[in-house]
Specification:
The chain is mainly α and 576 residues long. Helices cover 60% and strands 7% of the residues. A hairpin with a 2-residue loop joins strand 6 (342-345) and strand 7. The chain starts with 7 loop residues before the first strand and ends in a 10-residue tail after the last helix. Bound molecules: protoporphyrin IX containing FE (HEM).
């Protein structure tokens, strides 16, 4: 079943793919050659460039998600540099007398004033603000969808666990970048967001008040937070993201990119196209597509009109005030939690109603995500390298868990918008919250079970396809009056995709005691691993083996032959 697919094949880290060079004598080509020689003679970079340019990359649309994250980050940097030239990171109070008449005489911080100035008095300032904000939303959304692609296809498995952790840290950093940026204008919305975060920090026992004091420099809101957040937002966080992105992409290069299953693709080769010129051209073009789409959003769709909200003031808190989408789950967690769990111990108040939804829950959630590659490795016990991706249906439990996590997240997001949902659907906000309290537990479990069953159903369908071929819709009637539907065998390429997945089974834990009757150490741990392994692999659909394929095909051929011999097939009397 070795059918080569299109593209070049590389069996090591250095590809054997060919890169065609087009001889040209034009002045431009010669100038480019001379420049390359000049640089190579002084840096010896030629061999490295050749190695990189010939590196093969497998192709799939889902690999674009990481690229979107990368390009929107570049747009963030470019637009952010322009915003930095006009933003004043200061909480000093001023009375507004700028270009926007409706705010004349309003008391506000210099940060808010400079945001208004940028939006109404600086040519192109509002466009830059909007491009920056849209780029931030697309950056976080593409990171999360990229992470989902890595999760559902199992791209985090050995040797990419470290890169998963690097990516995970990037995701956390992107949330930090988004939150600090969102808070800079010092408007009512962001100020209230900060007040919520201060409340969350204060709910942490013992150290909470010190962290709060360290951040705000006084009791909330203080007058140092905006300058501090500004430094973090424009220097510290982008610096960390840049360094981590470099490490992330370096690891992608060194470990080679994974590939989707297909004819001829194995864990020991790479089937794809060379970085130069194919991907360089594609990636360059795609950057401008992403940039263009973000610029279009920034130009046509209003975002964060802070002048409508007004400068920060602790008193006005209205309904319909949601943070950006990536922080909504914390808001949802806080809203969903019954306010019953506040205990006083030795004069200290323990706000479990804040601590649990906003600290413990996200901690467990993110901890689970960070450790997921190892959790799955314990369950499989498989130590081999994996370069061919899983089709989500072939990992039913993982796919079920992924869908359950997304469902859990969506319920929290909806609860975070419960006032809007109640308003739009004319429902009681209290009834909605009670419903979400039930759904937050029930829906993820249901989503897990349904997804797992669907995945296994699809696996069974794949088995049918491999063994009995594709239904053609052609019905043939034999002389005896019997009808059969003609099935056509699927192609070798398709069969490769449908049968090539690992047949993982629950791990055996072995006897509790050794041959001398002495209890083996770590029995509890082994039992836990075995239970985890059973959870993953007890229910499974095994891939079709070559013997089964051969047997099914022989059986079909014999059946048709037998029918033909028993009742000679008469084309004139058959209906197709
Ligand atoms: C600033 C954020 C990020 C950027 C710019 C970024 C960029 C990229 C790019 C361009 C690729 C190669 C193309 C692709 O497979 O999509 C990639 C691969 C990868 N990323 Fe990310 N990524 C980011 C965040 C993340 C996150 C949050 C995770 C997971 C927690 C992650 C895990 C991975 C892994 C494991 C690979 C290798 C995939 C493979 O070989 O199939 N990345 N990333």
């Amino acid at each position: 079943m070795t059918t080569p697919s299109s593209g070049s094949v590389s069996t090591g880290s250095v590809s054997t793919g060919t890169v065609s060079s087009v001889p040209s004598t034009s002045r431009l080509t010669r100038a480019a050659g001379d420049t390359a020689n000049f640089v190579d003679e002084r840096t010896s970079i030629g061999a490295f460039t050749k190695f990189m340019a010939r590196k093969l990359f497998p192709d799939h649309w889902s690999f674009m998600l990481g690229e979107i994250a990368l390009y929107s980050f570049i747009v963030l940097l470019l637009s952010g540099v322009i915003l930095t030239a006009f933003f004043v990171p200061s909480m000093d109070q001023v009375t507004y007398d700028g270009g926007l008449a409706q705010l004349h005489g309003a008391e506000m911080s210099k940060a808010f004033e400079s945001t208004i100035h940028m939006s109404f008095d600086v040519p192109g300032g509002l466009l830059m603000r909007q491009i920056h904000h849209w780029a931030a939303l697309i950056f976080t959304a593409s990171i999360v969808t990229h992470m989902a692609r890595i999760f559902f296809t199992g791209a985090f498995r050995k040797p990419r666990e470290i890169n998963w952790l690097v990516g995970f840290t990037l995701m956390i950093m992107s949330l930090a970048a988004g939150f600090t940026g969102y808070s800079l204008p010092d408007d009512v919305l962001s100020g209230n967001g900060l007040r919520i975060i201060d409340g969350v920090i204060l709910s942490i026992p013992i150290i909470g008040q010190y962290i709060s004091y360290g951040l705000f420099g006084a009791q909330f809101p203080g007058d140092v937070l905006i300058p501090r957040m500004f430094t973090a937002h424009i220097l510290l966080i982008p610096g960390i993201i840049l360094a981590l992105v470099a490490l992330h992409l370096f690891l992608v290069f060194m470990q080679k990119h994974t590939q989707h299953p297909g004819g001829g693709r194995t864990d020991k080769n790479v089937v794809g196209l060379p970085l130069f010129p194919v991907y360089t051209a594609k990636a360059g073009g795609f950057f401008f597509v992403v940039f263009g789409a973000i610029a279009l959003l920034g130009a046509a769709f209003q975002i964060n009109p802070v002048w409508n909200y007004g400068p920060y003031d602790p008193s006005p808190v209205s309904a319909g005030t949601q943070p950006d989408w990536y922080m909504l789950f914390i808001d949802g967690g806080l809203r969903i939690m019954p306010g019953l769990f506040e205990v006083v111990i030795g004069g200290y108040t323990l706000s479990l109603n804040v601590l649990i939804p906003a600290v413990v829950l996200p901690g467990l959630f993110f901890g689970f995500l960070a450790l997921y590659p190892w959790i799955e490795k314990w369950a499989t016990g498989d130590r081999g390298e994996k370069h061919v991706l899983d089709r989500p249906r072939n990992a039913p439990v993982r796919t079920g868990l992924g869908v359950a996590i997304i469902t859990f997240y969506v319920v929290l997001v909806l609860e975070g918008s419960n006032d809007i949902v109640a308003n739009v659907f004319h429902l009681s906000i209290n009834d909605l919250t009670i419903m979400f309290r039930i759904l937050v537990f029930a829906l993820p479990v249901a989503a897990f079970m349904i997804t797992k069953r669907i995945a296994m159903g699809l696996q069974r369908k794949d088995r049918e396809l491999v063994l009995h071929g594709e239904e053609t819709g052609r019905i043939v009637r034999f002389e005896s009056g019997e009808y059969i539907e003609v099935h056509e065998p699927i192609s070798e390429q398709e069969r490769w995709v449908l049968v090539s997945y690992a047949n993982l089974k629950p791990q055996e834990i072995g006897p509790e005691a050794n041959e001398h009757g002495v209890r083996r150490k770590g029995a509890r741990w082994r039992r836990f691993k075995a239970a985890l392994s059973r959870f993953y692999f007890e229910d499974r659909v095994e891939p079709v083996t070559p013997a089964e394929v051969a047997e099914a095909h022989a059986h079909h051929a014999a059946e048709i032959e037998a029918k033909k011999n028993a009742e000679p097939y008469d084309a004139a009397s058959s209906h197709v």
